[in-house]
Amino acid sequence: MSADTPAQTGSFEPEGPGREALDVLYRFVAALELAPTVAVHSTDRNGIVRYWNHTCADVFGVSAEEAVGRPLTSLASHLDREEDFKNTLESVWKTGRTAPPRDWHIRRLDGADRWLYSTHFPVLRDGVPQQLFCMEVDISRRKVDEAELIEAGSNFRQLFERSTDAIVLIEGNNIIDANPAALVLFHCAGKQDVVGKTLLDFSPEVQATGETSIVADAALTARAFIDGNHRYEWEYALPDGTHFWAEVLLTSVTLDHEFLSYAVLRDISPRKAAEHALAMAARVFEKSRDAILLTDRHYRVIAVNQAFSVLTGIGADEVMGGEVPGLHSGMHEPSFYQQIWDFVAVHDHWEGEVCCVRREDEDVPVWVAVTAIRDSAEQVSNYMAIMTDITERKRAEEQTRHLAEHDFLTDLPNRVLFLDRLQQALVSARRQHSKVAVMFLDLDRFKGINDSFGHHVGDAVLKEVATRLTGCVRGVDTVSRQGGDEFVVILADIGGVDQAAHVATSVMHAVAQPVRSNGHSISLSVSIGIAICPEDGLDVDTLLQHADVAMYHAKQNGRNAFSFFNADMNAHVIERVQIENELRHALSNQEFFLEYQPEVNIATGLTIGVEALLRWRHPQRGLLMPHQFIQVAEECGLMVPIGEWVLRQACSQARAWRDEGCPVGVAVNLSGAQFLHGGLVHSVDEALRLSGLAPEFLDLEITESVIMRGDDATVATVAALRERGVQLTIDDFGTGYSSLSFLRRYPLTKLKIDRSFVDEIPEHDTTANLIPAIIAVARSLKLRVIAEGVETAEQLMFLQQHGCDDYQGYYASMASTEPDLKPRPR
To answer: Cα–Cα distance between 354 and 329 in angstroms, integer?
Structure first.
């Protein structure tokens, strides 16, 4: 609980021994205060009264306010047995054993005499008495009855009948008479229910001491016979199942050689219950692992347990009789504790968290429950506080909170904590009129690291990147991992965009340093998008969205760069999202169609095939070419179903032309996504089966990037396609980094020269050298050569002179849904 709100109760309640102690002690102290017949008081080793219940005030004629803090011997005189009384108390302190119950004749301060039946017993800690409790019952009335009985033998029957104590006359072992008080005590309707029975008939088989009632009764009876009388305590069990305790004075008389006796019994069940409760409470009090402190109404300490000393470092002897020690801490003002007492005064209970300082100046979080105990007059008589060390609970809570707010791999703040810190940074920026930068970071091509080296290496790389990012920012900034290879940085309270650019540059340099893991040296780069508050947004969602857009553009522009957000970027992203959503319905709405561009043999001028080119007839945007939507389709996972549709349509059209007498092949471009999907071979088989087209009339064009992947799955897929008789062309050759060693691994049939080389014929000498070289490479691999993008006779002549086999382009024909398949000029 904070010092700002001490009057609010907390939700935590200690469990186990601490809570048990709180409940037991509260009931016990309340019972002692309200007990009408048992006077209970306690003294310390110096004989000073530390506890004085309500009945004590009646018995001794001294209020608790007057008694507590004074010597017990100053509150009443034990007359001629004063020394005997002191010796009795000293014996209990020395031996640690309860003194036998006995009668004491006292004189109160007001001069009145009283007879008290007293039991003194110690409260021990580690076997050493700490306090002396005394439970006393006023037996003055009984003493009068006994005196009258002795003095007025002639009136014995009258005294016998009106005695408030139960009296039974015994001959041998059998009861021969009982007074009305005895009938009430034994729950009997008349004397016939008692006479003729023995006291053992009203006793349990075993006494509380563990001794059988028969053996114990024989010993006590013999003692009374030898000494003349004997006083003892006895547990009785009645036929109706009830039990009670009685103090028994058994007196033995021999008359005419007959053994007679009478027993005077007094119900002491309330006192025994109080003794039991006190003993149990004392055990719980001392054994409790929680610190417990008991005070009087003036906040003077009357009892503390061992756990209190362990918790606070304050010994019991240092606090007994003094005011409650404050749990002094720099976290709480003095008024904090006064507010607690004020709250208890109104509500009788307060609990909350307090910081306690041990003597070693160690701060300890403590859960404190303070309860007011009221007497029968509804006045506060005592206060009880139970204190629980919650250090481990706080540590566990902190650990749980840390796990909930931090990434398990890098230990960076996760999205939950990041959003909270960003919100705080924005609030501070508005107040200080400063700027906040949000940097969205994505590691370039990180998936390849996992695929090539394994996820354990990928995890090691992420942890190293997290460390490097943290080293690039200030303590007030936040680096968070959002998941995968994405990180977000908050640059709080910056002066301007230059500072953000400087940090972005530092981050790129730090990430670019090779990471060594598991024997590998791994090079990295990062794309960063930056959004600035307030220019690019004033709220969390807007800033994150704009930083993400900027990061996307950094990747689009070649990666390994950082980009600041601007409005044009956002418009582009919005358009891309719209295209993605519209693409998802284009297939089902039959918005796609194919155009075909003839492929012409240079030597004969005959059309030997066509290339299928995808078009999108958009209902609002009009005709869209592949470069306007293919990349979006690949990124959102739609390229595979679109590619399957193209295959089926192209194969079906090629078969139709063949049936019409124009047996031309059809070339279909394959996307890298179709290779990664794993179902490409099945898709080709289905397209050929459904169309009835022979495999040799299908030419699949594969990009250099797919060839360069070089993994076993790609090699196996290409081999399976070639085994079926399908033609295979490496597309856009010269734009990538393929090598002869890679090309030899694939059973290709044709090589297509990229239009970028053809466009430069015959202006550039470099091109004049490159195209013959490419053709020479194809010849060494036994591949046919086709050039795309031929638009002039000069270009065609150059290609013919250097041995190119086929060509396509506007010079031959534009692409259309119904291509012209007639021979072309050579």
So the answer is: 9
Distance CA 38, CA 247 (A): 14
Phi–psi pair at 824, nearest 5 degrees: -110, 160
Judge residue 730's burial from the number of C-beta atoms within 10 Å of its C-beta, 0-12 exposed, 13-18 middle, 19 or more buried.
Answer: buried
Q: How far apart are CA 391 and CA 311, in angstroms?
A: 11
Q: Bigger pLDDT: 466 or 321?
A: 466
**Distance in angstroms (rounded) separating the CA atoms of residues 700 and 718:** 10
Q: What is the β-pairing status of strands 607-618 and 592-601? A: antiparallel
The side-by-side arrangement of strands in the sheet containing 562-564 is 478-483, 486-494, 435-443, 526-533, 562-564
Count Cβ atoms below 10 Å from residue 136 Cβ, excluding itself: 24
- Report whether 510 contacts 473 (CB < 8 A): no
User: CB–CB of 292/21 below 8 Å?
Assistant: yes
Q: What pLDDT, in 10s, does the model give residues 107-156? A: 999 999 999 988 898 888 888 888 898 988 888 877 776 666 556 555 56
pLDDT of residue 33: 66
Write out the two tokens for 534.
Answer: 């307030």
For 39-59, the DSSP string reads: EEEEE-TTSBEEEE-HHHHHH
- Average pLDDT of span 303-309: 84
Residue 87 neighbours by CB under 8 Å, 6+ apart:
none
Q: CA 404 to CA 626: how far, in whole Å? A: 46
Quote the crossing angle between the two packed helices 269-287 and 17-34, to the nearest 10°.
150
Question: Is residue 591 a contact partner of residue 619, using CB atoms and an 8 Å limit?
Answer: yes
Kindly list the distances between the CA atom of residue 631 and the CA atoms of 33, 231, 556, in Å, as whole numbers in the listed order.
86, 106, 11
Per-residue pLDDT, 7: 41
Residue among 529, 466, 532, 530 nearest 493 (CA): 532
Handedness of CA 634, 640, 643, 649 (dihedral sign): negative
Cα separation, 685 vs 672, in Å, equals 18
Nearest to 606, CA basis, from 684, 664, 525: 664
Over residues 326-381, the pLDDT tens digits come to: 555 556 677 777 888 889 888 889 988 887 766 566 778 888 889 998 887 788 88
Q: Identify which has the larger pLDDT, 611 or 295.
A: 611
Question: Which DSSP string corresponds to 698-735?
Answer: EEEEEEHHHHHH--HHHHHHHHHHHHTT-EEEEEEETS
Q: What is the pTM of this model?
A: 0.45
**Integer Cα distance of 228 and 763 in angstroms:** 144
Contact assessment for residue 371 and residue 384, using Cβ atoms and an 8 Å cutoff: yes
CA–CA gap between residue 735 and residue 120 (Å, rounded): 105
- Per-residue pLDDT for 98 more than 80? yes
pLDDT value at 635 more than 80: no
The rounded distance, in Å, linking the Cα atoms of 432 and 285 is: 56
